[in-house]
Design goal:
The structure is a homodimer of 257-residue chains.
Chain A (H helix, E strand, L loop, with lengths): L1 E6 L12 H8 L7 E5 H7 L3 E3 L3 H8 E10 L2 E8 L4 E3 L12 E3 L5 H16 L4 E10 L2 E12 L25 H13 L7 E5 L29 H19 L5
Parallel strand pairs in A: 2-8
Antiparallel strand pairs in A: 1-10, 2-10, 3-7, 4-5, 5-6, 8-9
Chain lengths: 257, 257
């Protein structure tokens, strides 16, 4: 078993209103089973999700539905937040890199819908049954550096659901459900790069993960906060507990004899 | 820019004492710049890191240096812990899948050292300047499913350090440092699979990430807990705060008039 990932050369600078499907279909040849990994930044540009850099802080606040953790550092405050798309990361996905001077980019409003529109367009233009993943670059708890993950998906199985299957020694793989979409996004980053200006990669040879356009999107990867052991930063949770404990002890009044 | 990942067929069941470098060199052809991604499980087997399944709970306790979070569920308690290797995950990496009946596997004692020994052996046997990554499958906060990550590395740049470089529009990429090793581990999972019995993959075409054997290993990916906003589960941090706040209020005594 093997596959190949190619960076797609020659994608021009994208502007609001551009037809991304036509641009991508014109830059590479697509076959049944190919999976496109597209940096969400160019989708944001095509969808006109651009605001003035001066409005960055306001944009972050506007995109935030929940503050998960904050950290003071020399350069200011980092806010780890859950954004409108349900993704947890720094600055709500509002990004100044690779955006036109004086502007910042917001994430697509509905990345799964954007991926579906792109996959639909590519399938119509090329006749090839392809899948689409929209990627973004995020930090993560416990580990330094960033990895690209899937924030949108269409026509791709985002998980390889092995629950109930047997391993090579015949034992059941009770909880194993590799996140194919995140692994593909990370794999594609290795040819796209941040500084190379290559926003699209094609994965060839993993057609077994391609499926219908109505498969669950990348939203299905997000764990609901109430089921998440790390739904809040450790300092924030401690502070909340401290206040609750302090208030409770005061409400109880002096210890009874 | 493009690369290819191949699953290496024909790796036999590994037993304690087996020479993994010889086994892998015999199963595929290696060239300068190739990167091997090896499931840590077969390294554990070769190193004899096998204990009786009856001793699983004790093994988890023995491998744990810090409990990060716990969750009660129908089947018992899930412990998310930091293990001796510094990796945060469920069950301290003690794993029953793909291990001989009645046994569980512990992670290699020092995965970076194991990776270095394997890379040294492979370079000596084949004459090819290859890199080695040892992978394991882990869940993560905020997102469902698992991805393979790098728990050991040798002869590979684990990060692509872009800090200070410019993006395509000329702006500095202040904090961008993609974790190449984790992305490679995830990319390789897509050909290895859990049920396929293919524990080794070769990445061809990314020789720019291959380097000397004394490059920092995967341990350098681990963020020290004191710098980690999610060093403790939200419930655990809340409970700790609650007790501290309660005790503090009691120590202060009744409110002064």
């Amino acid at each position: 078993m093997e596959y190949r990932i190619e960076g797609v050369e020659g994608i021009p600078e994208i502007a609001p209103g551009d037809d991304l499907a036509a641009v991508i279909a014109g830059a590479t040849t697509l076959d049944d089973g190919d999976i496109l990994v597209v940096t969400s930044k160019i989708v944001s540009k095509a969808e006109g999700r651009i605001v003035r850099a001066a409005d960055r802080e306001q944009a972050i606040t506007g995109e935030t539905v929940r503050v998960v953790a904050t950290r003071q550092h020399e350069g200011g405050v980092t806010r780890i937040v859950e954004n409108r798309q349900g993704i947890i990361g720094a600055a709500a996905g509002v990004d100044a890199s690779n955006s036109p001077e004086g502007t910042v980019l917001l994430l697509p409003v509905d990345p799964d819908a954007s991926a579906r529109a792109l996959a639909t367009g590519l399938r119509a233009l090329t006749g090839a049954r392809v899948g689409v993943i929209l990627s973004d670059t995020l930090g993560r708890p416990w580990r330094e550096g960033q990895t690209d993950i899937a924030i949108g998906a269409a026509g791709v199985h985002v998980f390889d659901d092995l629950r109930g299957q047997a391993d090579a020694s015949g034992k059941a793989l009770a909880v194993t459900m590799p996140c194919v979409a995140d692994q593909l996004a990370g794999a594609a980053e290795l040819v796209k790069g941040k500084s190379a200006g290559v926003p699209v990669a094609v994965v060839r040879g993993l057609g077994r993960y391609v499926g219908d356009l109505d498969l669950p999107g990348a939203r299905s990867i997000q764990r609901p906060p109430e089921r998440d052991l790390f739904r809040q930063g450790a300092d924030e949770a401690y502070d909340e507990g401290y206040r609750a404990g302090f208030d409770e002890a005061q409400a109880e009044g002096p210890l009874a004899e």
